[in-house]
Design a protein that fits this description.
Length: 313
């Protein structure tokens, strides 16, 4: 090798120089520029209002006079001196336990039916999804109230009287409105069903497994991550339900507090009674409760949610 070949060989073996600190800072600056709309929106529209709400939860504030610091009085009053608060908690828990399983069962049943449809699947999927887009509106809630009111469609068909005027039936009427909005979880279930290999069902059929056995042994385990996702999402939404209860009860939570959901009572305390400090304390308790329920769901999911490629527990 000649002396003229040494620099060339060395150049071929030498890695390119690392980018300097200036280039790294420029890339970091560009990243922050693109993230700035989200950071600004999260700070101004989420974090700042949450901080203000936390402060107000320790004050007596009526929205007209400056807040007055009262410490933990709102929380102690909530837990020990307010029976309507505990009625709202019980009503909300009953609604969640009733509405969420029914909604997921209907969504899964419709998804299983649509899986076998060969023609116009897109039309049926859109048609069943439409209630999820419309059901959260006040107009649909008012129509629902008319259907279940005295002299409404349900009363004319069943002769049971208006459900929304009977304490034993009003909550069920609101729950059925939530069940009717099964489109969003149905679409997610349908996507999950399409990911299950057909060979599993063919092998099970060869072994003589019935459709029920295939559903229990193949469909449910393979669909468990999607089921868990829908369960968490719909549970969180159910704890925050407001519009149907407000429309059905005209904002009062009646009859006999049977539709006094937590968020409806929070609205009543904050915007009707002008006890915004008390309402802020209720909001933070709701946030903590939803976080606790979500944590429990994630904890229990280890026993029944199975992911592809995961070893048997």
């Amino acid at each position: 090798m000649t002396t003229t070949d040494i620099p060339a060989a060395t150049a071929r073996r030498t890695p390119p120089p690392a980018a300097g600190k200036g280039a790294g800072r420029r890339r970091e600056g560009a990243a922050w520029v693109f993230l700035s709309p989200w950071v600004l929106g999260a700070s101004v529209l989420t974090l700042l209002p949450m901080a203000v709400s936390l402060y107000l939860s320790f004050t007596d504030y009526d929205m007209f006079n400056p807040p007055r610091w009262v410490g933990l009085r709102n929380y102690t009053q909530m837990f020990t001196e307010d029976p309507r608060y505990w009625r709202s908690v019980g009503t909300t828990l009953l609604y969640v336990v009733l509405a969420v399983p029914l909604q997921l069962a209907v969504a899964l049943a419709v998804a299983l039916a649509l899986k076998s449809v060969r023609r116009a699947k897109g039309f049926y999927r859109s048609a069943f999804y439409a209630p999820s887009l419309l059901g959260a509106s006040m107009s649909i809630a008012l129509v629902w109230r008319a259907i279940f009111n005295d002299g409404g469609t349900v009363d004319n068909l069943l002769g049971t009287g208006g459900w929304v005027t009977q304490p034993g039936w009003a909550l069920l009427a609101v729950a059925l409105l939530t069940v009717w909005q099964f489109g969003a979880p149905m679409v997610i279930f349908l996507a999950g069903l399409q990911q299950i290999p057909g060979e599993l069902y063919e092998a099970a059929a060869v072994d003589g497994a019935s459709r029920g056995r295939q559903f229990v042994s193949i469909t449910l385990p393979m669909l468990s991550p999607v089921l868990f996702f829908n369960l968490v999402l719909q549970t969180i939404q159910a704890f925050q339900v407001f519009t149907p209860a407000f429309a059905v009860s005209a904002g009062k939570g009646g009859p006999a507090d049977s539709t006094l959901f937590y968020t409806l009572y929070l609205y009543d305390r904050g915007f009707v009674a002008s006890h915004m400090g008390y309402a802020s304390a209720m909001a933070w308790v709701l946030l903590i409760a939803i976080g606790a329920v979500t944590a429990v769901l994630f904890r229990t999911s280890r026993a029944w949610v199975f992911y592809a490629g995961e070893e048997t527990r």
